[in-house]
Write a structure and sequence with these properties.
- The chain is built from two helices and five strands.
- By secondary structure, it is mostly beta strands.
- The chain has one domain: Ribosomal Protein L25, Chain P.
- Strands 1-2-3-4-5 form a five-stranded mixed β-sheet.
- The longest helix has 4 residues.
């Protein structure tokens, strides 16, 4: 299941040129495991994500309180627009 397009990942730091290294953040009630699922970020290419970009998933409660975060790397982007994120660890 993909995220809601009304709350897309946000680009918070950008590199110059075509090299990877951009930093993205996504805040929602979705866990890092959900964000790492195939097809979750179904418009990564359209957003400008590149393999090697950093991705932080910030998990919130339905009331908006912080629950956990996980840092990952964009490990794949397809021409059909989907991006895949691989997470190393989760912190609370």
């Amino acid at each position: 299941m993909a995220y809601s397009s009304t709350n897309p990942p946000k680009l918070i730091a950008q590199t110059y040129g075509d090299s990877p290294g951009n930093v993205w953040t996504y805040s929602s009630t979705h866990t890092a495991a959900a964000a790492a699922a195939s097809g979750f970020i179904d418009n990564g290419f359209a957003l400008g994500m590149k393999v090697g970009d950093s991705f932080r998933n910030v998990e919130l409660t339905t009331a908006g309180a912080f629950t956990a975060f996980a840092d990952g790397i964009v490990s794949g982007v397809t021409a059909s627009s989907a991006a895949t994120v691989t997470f190393a660890a989760t912190s609370t």
